[in-house]
Design goal:
The chain is of the alpha+beta class. The chain has helices at residues 13-24, 63-71; strands at 2-3, 6-7, 40-42, 50-52, 57-59.
Length: 89
């Protein structure tokens, strides 16, 4: 697989994550969004529809926005969901 100037084989899972982070812009200093974070959850409560299972809170805004507003820094625990690599035959 070749992506963004990096050649990656399926036996290099760490390199795949780094390529993914580069493609999504996380490593370029762009804002973190919770859409592909493994800790994002849905509560099905109208007043607090989002939750962060790592920090353990529910909110009306996306958890990354709450963390940025409260701490002044981007979420340090953002972790993208695991990539599924399948060999095409």
């Amino acid at each position: 697989m070749y992506c963004s100037g990096v050649s990656v084989s399926s036996s290099q899972p760490v390199a795949l994550v780094l390529v993914y982070l580069e493609m999504t812009g996380v490593r370029k200093g762009l804002r973190i969004t919770c859409g592909d974070c493994q800790f994002l959850g849905v509560t099905y409560q109208l007043s607090q529809p989002w939750k962060c299972s790592h920090f353990g809170f529910k909110s009306k805004d996306l958890p990354a926005r709450v963390v940025l507003r409260e701490t002044g820094t981007e979420c340090a625990f953002y972790k993208p969901k695991a990539l599924i690599v399948r060999k095409i035959t």
